[in-house]
Amino acid sequence: MKKRRGNPDIEPGAPSTFGAVATGTEGDRAAGPGRGAELADLREVAVHAKPYYADETTIWSWLSTTDHKRIGIIFFVMTSVALLIGGVLAMVLRLEHLTPDPTVMSAATYNQVFTLHGVIMVWFFLIPSIPAAFGNFFVPIMLGAQDVAFPRLNLATVYFYLVGLIVTVVGLVAGGADTGWTFYPPYSSQTFTTLVPILIGVFILGWSTILTGINLIVTIHTLRAKGMKLMQMPLFVWAMYGVSVIQVVATPVLGMVLLIISLDHGLDWGFFDPARGGDLILFQHLFWFYSHPAVYIMILPAMGVISEVVLALSHKNPLSYKAIAYSTFGIAFAGFLTWGHHMFVSGMSTFDAGVFGVLSMFVGIFSAIKVFTWVGSMYKGSISLRTPLVYVFAFLFLFVFGGMTGIAVAATSLDVHWHDTYFIVAHFHFIMVGASLTAWFAAIHYWWPKMTGRMYSEAWGIAASILVFLGFIATFFPQFLLGNGGMPRRYYYYPDHFQALHVMSTAGTWVLALGMTIALIYLIFSLFYGARAPMNPWGARTLEWAVPSPPTRHNFEVTPLIEQDPYDYSNPLREVRPNPLYDPELERHRSTERSP
Amino acid sequence: MYTPRVQPFFEDLEKQRHAAKLGMWIFLGSELLFFAGLFAIYAFYRTLYPETFQLGVDHNSKLLGSINTALLILGSTMVASAVNFLRLGQRRIATWLVAATAASGVLYIAIKSTEYGMHFSHGIYPGGVGHFFAENPDPGFPVFFTTYFALTGLHVIHVAIGVALLGWKAWWIRRDRVDPTGAYRLGIVALYWHFVDMIWLFLWPMFYLLGTQR
Q1: Is A593 left (phi over 0), alpha (psi -120 to 50) or beta?
Q2: For all residues of chain A together, what is the average pLDDT?
Q3: What is the number of other CB atoms lying within 10 angstroms of the CB of residue A15?
Q4: Helix-helix angle A499-529:A438-452, to 10 degrees
Q5: At what angle do helices B91-121 and B140-176 cross, to 10 degrees?
Q6: Contact B22/A222 with Cβ under 8 angstroms?
Q7: Predicted confidence band at A48 (pLDDT cuts at 50, 70, 90)?
Q8: Whether domain A50-556 has CATH 1.20.210.10
Q9: DSSP state string for A372-426
Q10: Dihedral sign, CA of A137, A142, A147, A152?
Q11: Is B47 within a domain?
Q12: Which of A356, A383, A438, B163 would suit a FRET pair with A19, their CA atoms being 20 to 30 Å apart?
């Protein structure tokens, strides 16, 4: 293997550098040094233990696993498949818009395809992609824990997801839905498409989301390694905490709304039927009460990933740890008070619209705090420009672009013009795809060595990331122009003078798809032929880089002692030592050591 | 004799107990938000049709509703005492109290079903179907009764789940001869039952008491 640039202390097996200033509590310091250093052979055990995926190899051992790492991998694969389905649907949609008239499908099919694209991308990819895959895999390791608090519940989330996906796909095969992913009545109560399986599928999936949220919150509260205070947790964990809170609070409201729409559509209960005293706008309020915070379920984990990658690859203390951690909760909180901005033209008083507009702009303040802190953290850092960091740059550009247009559409006067046009489509794709998807790619590349034990090809990685970025811009930038020119979203036909921009957008999807295909190929290639990953290829300080690549079944053979802050790049990297106070196994081991 | 096993990733039983309780509380918070959607619908429509909602409330049987309230409160008391008895090692009493709570839940479901039967016989079905709505064309009635069926129906489903959980716990305490350290696992089911109870304490005034005060 080629020797890598970077810190000298990242080579596996390098002598540990003790003697730095301890950052733990008084008690830890009193108990720590001198005692844990006798554990060379315990470390041997850790080095020679099998990686988590080779611990048992039967299919049943995967289907019934309670190992958070395997569950993370299963989610990673399942959400990637969802991305593939949703992505192919997106490409078919863009293909349809190559010409103003019918190109490859009928209008009815077009309606069903954009509905499924939305449903699959939002609920089966964006929401679980980072929390359920990377959150499950890394949150316990980052906390120094051996597993999540409820491993069996964690396994259940896999099956809720799977059943939800299957029910939804059954709905798709049985006829599909054509309401758009927002299911607005009265159309959703009256459409003749098979809506109910899709609603129930998403409802079941919601259970997976809620249970993942509960599991992560309880894990963060009860399983932190001794000595790790809340304000010493890695920023990714903070982001996952914020996301989990939103998942637990907002998802059940969506579940209720989906149930009610199922009852309206399937049994004709008429909850929102004005002829029976119902009110249509009420649905939109309930729906967006969930679905706007859901946007933050999609973006906050991405922000957590960005925080990790920026700090690890610029080897720099965060400009302000607290600013990044607190702004997460600022976004999570403000996100609950902004749902009305989806409904400016649905019938809302000017005063309400103004209030919702201003509250929406608050989200911009917290997002800006994060962006400035990330950029500031890179200043004078020792930056190694690897693929994850290239994706971070793409993220920063696209997120700021999407965020600024978000501020613009939060202003009622502008939104009335842009509402339900391609401008909105472009805006939220800049956030959902431009930011969340690039962060997802950053997460894949950043943690690939740890998850698989292999290095991907850096050159191909950077090439693919540039293609993804350019393809993305080519796809969605023209849509801003289209929307501003008056092209409504979800329309099958369009006037001829929009064709040039539509063709540009369609061509962009091909570049984007090419970039993602290249990524898929070299990542799979690296699984078999990639160089073996060292324990800490980036020289990062968080705990997941202190365990072998890939980790063993129980992550840490003994509970680690937390002596260094997660981003303490001012001091040399210290080897993580076992906590001598709190581990009975270790105590037993040491007592046998001493009595030959 | 059953003593809860400490999972290897928890430091001690205390931490594990704390985690289990915290998890249940968060889950119940989530459940509350689940009901909140329907509560919001009720609040919205009640503001829209205040008089019709009062007339609709009059249509429900105050007596049966109040008996059900008493049953649930009695059940909550019994299951809470059961947790305490189990903590003191009084396994027999605890088993009987849990079983009695489950029985009170079954009785609740029976009374609720009788009420539904009465509605159906008066021509009141969810979705504004039935001769009642033809005779009373006020648009507030369909939303009132649809909301009523949805909220109480969802609540009955929760009661049924609670009954199943309590029955299972009663059987478990008896079979495994649970010792006092295992009481917290019964406590978690008890928390769920209290939640079901609390929801009903809001449904009771909403659908039985806040009528025209005749």
Answers
A1: alpha
A2: 87
A3: 8
A4: 10
A5: 160
A6: yes
A7: low
A8: yes
A9: HHHHHHHTT------HHHHHHHHHHHHHHHHHHHHHHHHSHHHHHHHTTBHHHHH
A10: negative
A11: yes
A12: A383
Rounded to whole angstroms, the Cα distance separating B56 from B50 reads 10
**CB-closest option in A279, A285, A582 to B11:** A582
Task: Tell the residue number behind the tokens 């009256």, with chain if given.
Answer: A190
Inside any domain, residue B6: no
ipTM: 0.93
Q: Kindly state whether B161 is in contact with chain A, defined as any CB-CB distance less than 8 angstroms.
A: no
Tokens of A398: 């696209």
Query: Residue A47: its pLDDT value, please?
Result: 52
Nearest to B46 by CA among A348, A256, A279: A279
Q: How far is CA A120 from CA A196, A201, A265, A491, B107, in A?
A: 15, 11, 21, 20, 43
pTM for the model stands at 0.89
Decide if B94 contacts B169 (C-beta within 8 A): no
Q: What is the CATH number of the domain that holds B74?
A: 1.20.120.80
Tokens describing residue A241: 């905490």
Residue B19 forms contact with A (CB below 8 Å):
yes
Contact residues on chain A for B128, CB-CB shorter than 8 A: 270, 276-277
Cβ burial of A570 (10 Å; 0-12, 13-18, 19+) is exposed
**Average of per-residue pLDDT across A143-160:** 94
pLDDT digits (tens, 9 = 90+) for A70-88: 999 999 999 999 999 999 9
Is position B1 within any domain?
A: no
State which residues form the domain around B203.
13-209
Q: Considering only CB atoms, which chain B residues are within 8 Å of A256?
A: 34-38
Provide φ and ψ at A358, rounded to 5°.
-65, -45
Q: How far apart are the first and last CA of chain A?
A: 42
Q: Which amino acid is at A589?
A: H
Both tokens of A143, joined, read 């906390």
Provide the domain count of chain B: 1
Neighbours of B5 (CB within 10 A): 8
pLDDT, tens digit, 9 for 90 and up, residues A430-485: 999 899 999 999 999 999 999 999 999 999 999 999 999 999 999 999 999 999 99
Is residue B182, in this structure, part of any structural domain at all? yes
What is the spatial distance between Cα A187 and Cα A183, in angstroms, rounded to a whole number?
8
Helices (H), A64-150: 68-96, 107-119, 127-128, 136-142
* Euclidean distance between CA atoms B58 and A354, whole angstroms: 41
Give residue B214's pLDDT band: very low, low, confident or very high (50, 70, 90): low
**Cα Rg of chain A (Å, integer):** 25
CB atoms within 10 A of CB A263: 22
Tokens of residue A237, six digits: 């964990």
Residue among A387, A518, A530 nearest A454 (CA): A530
Lowest mean pLDDT among A174-183, A556-565, B6-15, B19-28: A556-565
Residues of B in contact with A271 (CB under 8 A): 41, 143, 146-147, 150
Q: Are the Cβ atoms of B37 and A253 closer than 8 angstroms?
A: yes
Residue B134, chain A, CB below 8 Å: the answer is no
The token duo for A40 is 């060379």
Q: Note whether B44 and A279 are within 8 A (CB).
A: yes
Count CA within 13 A, CB hemisphere, residue B155: 30
By the 10 Å C-beta count (0-12 exposed, 13-18 middle, 19+ buried), B7 is classed as: middle
| Cβ separation B139–A249 shorter than 8 A | no
Q: Per this entry, what is the length of chain B?
A: 214
CA pair distance B197, B70, nearest whole angstrom:
10
Percentage of chain A beyond pLDDT 70 is: 89
